[in-house]
Amino acid sequence: MERDLPRPQLKTTRFLVVTKKGLFQAGLLFILAPGLFGLFGKVCFFLFPQIPAAMQMTDDEIHSFLQKTITLRDRIVLTGDLSLLDSLYDQETRYGRWACEHQIRKAQHLTAWAQKQGARFIDLQTFIRLRSSKSQKSGYSLVFLASTVYKYVYLDDPLTVNSFRLGAHHAMDIGYKDGKWVVSREWYPDPFASPPPRPKTAEIAKWQGCIQSRQARDFSNLHPRRVAAVAYANRYAGAAAPPGTGFAYNPDYKNYNYLGGDCTNYASQVLHEGGDFPKTPAWNYQTEGSKAWVNAGAFKDYMLYSGRSSLIAHGTYDKVLPASYELLPGDFIAYAQKGKVEHISIVTGADSRGYTLVNSHNADRYRVPWDLGWNTGKTEFWLVRVHY
Hints:
The chain is of the alpha+beta class. The protein folds into two domains: 53-205, Roll (Nuclear Transport Factor 2, Chain: A), CATH 3.10.450.540; 214-386, endopeptidase fold (from Nostoc punctiforme), CATH 3.90.1720. It contains nine helices and ten strands. It has helices at residues 20-47, 59-79, 94-117, 201-212, 224-235, 263-274, 291-294, 296-305, 317-320, and strands at 119-136, 139-154, 157-177, 180-187, 309-315, 332-337, 340-350, 356-360, 364-369, 379-386. Strands 1, 2, 3, 4, 5, 6, 7, 8, 9 and 10 form a ten-stranded antiparallel β-sheet that branches.
């Protein structure tokens, strides 16, 4: 059978045919490409944010920023110049405004306390310890410890300097805006969240008369158990303690700050570990604290009704101020709002005018005037003598 012979394969040459339409599309793409790539970059930055290299900071630079920021806002207490805050916060955001307003209230609380006391602040020094920094969007999320020494003098005795410490762990967001870093959010436990007190002129004059008529008190003959209780309170004052302590709580006990507050747990530790009060079925700590060990109201009631303590005075600041000079290191104060005890502090000393000083947790305090941040006119105080 005859077969067809295969036909030879002809080589073909492909030509790029450029039409007017194709040329127009290519030119349009060439013109729009830079803009499209720029838009794509912005979308990617929004969805997958990162800090441009020129804006990134090392931990040392972040620490320097924090130190400068907090030093500047500390000056508000000394100068009363609230305009110093304008450059520190992103006040176009809700959280930035709230953070700024909180610092204003804090400065107002401290200023009102000094006026009531017949005193003035002469210096503030803050120690910063950066715990962590994490990049986010166009800024950083920071966690750090701030421990501030407040120095004050009485107006009629300017050469005698008194001091106390406040400390807290802060969570702060910072962002880069208009060529500088600003605070866009901040949170930390603080006793100055409520509006500052606004006492009447006659009340201030009355309180100043009582305070300025007093002298320094002698605690050299305290019972050894009181001395030991105060030593424990100072050692474990947390973020407010002197730097040599490591700013730590006692690791043998649970930290209740994230479960409503650690103030009563701390007070119980002071009386048991330092003051050598034995545990009881009602007042106890194993892996958890009993209600009387960790709850402020239950602790106050247990100590009074068990006979381990007795009441010195109860009432508003105006009522209990004279009796506050009877408090001794190792006693305690309960703070009540609307009839509910919300806080406990331990007496640890007195200043140059015999004004009672206290330690507490949440927020951490070291030898702080007993009413600072609480004398809003609505707080009731329970001044309690502990029987060592």
